[in-house]
């Protein structure tokens, strides 16, 4: 097994200088759930591993009705799932977390790690995209904010610069009469990577009224998670009738470009995109209209298996 030096910076500044000093020979880690798999198989062979877990301030979750939700990069998927404000105001993110792996992995895996791993099948990514997330990035040259959709450069690749660290996510405050949901489809439920994941967010003028805005994000059907602006535009200003929702779902299916792999064929994935887009839009609209938003009810919807 390749060996490495293990480093535990206590501040962001210390982490930056370690990353600058060791350059491409160093790799950031947080919960290590992706790292350990790739290190054991020899896919990643860093000489220095820089663990962020001791840097204070990166594992907070704060909700303010005016500002929205701030989530530190080191927040675990389990803490995200358990947080009352996430469950109440950001159902797509809560259902993204609840459909994620088993409880052991959820207790280690961080939100920052899931995003920086940049897998198109990452379960929190469609929700974060549908919820219009901004990423705070700290590097040796200072701080910058980047919309999440500009972070991804391809499968497993981000636009982070050398020695930059993703530190925080900001999700805008939900407007009145808005709702969202994520649904994962996988052969073995939460215990497997998603073969398709869809998150939808809608905002209504009033309960049952026309749609003021919508965002639809697809996972595992393109090289990165993607939004579907053409389908979103079909909902804008419309009453969300079954016909309107079906037309948007068909458009999402048209836009998806999935590949065949061990989990599903591309054709199967494409047909699932339409099903999950339709269901997430229906449930997001129902939540926006004041339907039962209990987490137990959302959780029942969040994972769809093939069998
Ligand atoms: C058994 C198992 C089941 C899994 N099931 C799922 C699943 O159902 N759904 C799913 O989406 N994923 C799943 N995963 C993948 C994994 O758990 C997630 O991607 C996890 O969120 C990664 O977080 P981490 O903190 O463990 O990241 P790490 O493994 O520590 O790091 C992952 C990557 O992100 C980089 N990184 C981490 N934090 C930062 C940061 N703050 N700034 C910059 N770069 C950073 C690292 O350099 C590395 O490239 C599973 C993994 C395992 C082993």
SSE arrangement:
Blueprint lengths: L4 E3 L4 H11 L3 E4 L3 H8 L7 E4 L9 E4 L3 E5 L4 H6 L1 H6 L1 H8 L4 H6 L2 H7 L7 H6 L3 E6 L2 E6 L4 E3 L2 E2 L6 E7 L6 E9 L9 E9 L6 E9 L6 E2 L1 H7 L6 H14 L10 H23 L6 H8 E3 L2
Parallel strand pairs: 1-3, 2-3, 11-15
Antiparallel strand pairs: 4-5, 5-10, 6-7, 6-10, 8-9, 11-12, 12-13, 13-14
Helix pairs in contact: 5-12, 9-10, 10-11
The chain binds flavin-adenine dinucleotide.
Description:
With 307 residues, the protein is of the alpha+beta class. It folds into 3 domains: 5-51, 2-Layer Sandwich (Uridine Diphospho-n-acetylenolpyruvylglucosamine Reductase, domain 2), CATH 3.30.43.10; 61-171, 2-Layer Sandwich (Uridine Diphospho-n-acetylenolpyruvylglucosamine Reductase, domain 3), CATH 3.30.465; 178-300, 2-Layer Sandwich (Enolase-like, domain 1), CATH 3.30.390. It is built from 12 helices and 15 strands. The protein has helices at residues 12-22, 33-40, 77-82, 84-89, 91-98, 103-108, 111-117, 125-130, 229-235, 242-255, 266-288, 295-302; strands at 5-7, 26-29, 48-51, 61-64, 68-72, 134-139, 142-147, 152-154, 157-158, 165-171, 178-186, 196-204, 211-219, 226-227, 303-305. The strands form 4 sheets. A 5-stranded antiparallel sheet has the order 4-5-10-6-7. Strands 14-13-12-11-15 form a 5-stranded mixed sheet, sandwiched between helices. A hairpin with a 6-residue loop joins β13 and β14 (226-227). α10 runs antiparallel to α11 (266-288). It is globular. The model has no long low-confidence stretch (mean pLDDT 95). The protein binds flavin-adenine dinucleotide. The site of flavin-adenine dinucleotide (FAD) has 30 residues, from β2, α2, α6, α7 and β10.
């Amino acid at each position: 097994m390749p060996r490495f030096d293990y480093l535990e910076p206590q501040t962001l500044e210390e982490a930056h200088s370690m990353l600058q000093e060791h350059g491409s020979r160093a790799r950031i880690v947080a919960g290590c759930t992706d790292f350990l798999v790739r290190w054991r198989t020899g896919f990643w062979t860093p000489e220095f591993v820089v663990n962020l877990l001791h840097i204070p301030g990166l594992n907070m979750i704060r909700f303010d009705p005016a500002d929205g939700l701030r989530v530190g990069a080191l927040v675990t998927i389990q803490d995200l799932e358990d947080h009352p404000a996430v469950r109440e105001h950001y159902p797509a993110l809560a259902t993204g977390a609840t459909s994620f792996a088993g409880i052991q992995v959820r207790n280690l895996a961080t939100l920052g790690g899931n995003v920086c791993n940049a897998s198109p099948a990452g379960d929190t990514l469609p929700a974060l995209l549908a919820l219009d997330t901004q990423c705070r990035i700290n590097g040796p040259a200072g701080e910058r904010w980047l919309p999440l959709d500009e972070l991804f450069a391809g499968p497993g690749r981000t636009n982070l610069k050398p020695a930059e660290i993703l530190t925080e996510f900001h999700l805008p405050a939900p407007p009145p009469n808005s709702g969202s949901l994520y649904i994962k489809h996988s052969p073995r439920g939460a215990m497997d990577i998603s073969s398709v994941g869809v998150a939808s967010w809608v905002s209504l003028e009033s309960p049952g009224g026309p749609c003021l805005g919508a965002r639809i994000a697809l996972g595992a059907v393109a090289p990165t998670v993607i939004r579907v602006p053409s389908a979103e535009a079909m909902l804008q200003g419309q009453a969300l009738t079954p016909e309107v929702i079906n037309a948007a779902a068909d458009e999402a299916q048209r836009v998806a470009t999935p590949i065949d792999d061990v989990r599903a064929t591309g054709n199967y994935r494409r047909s699932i995109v339409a099903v999950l887009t339709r269901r997430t839009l229906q449930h997001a609209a129902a939540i926006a209209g004041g339907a039962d938003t209990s987490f137990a009810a959302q959780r029942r919807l969040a994972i769809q298996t093939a069998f």
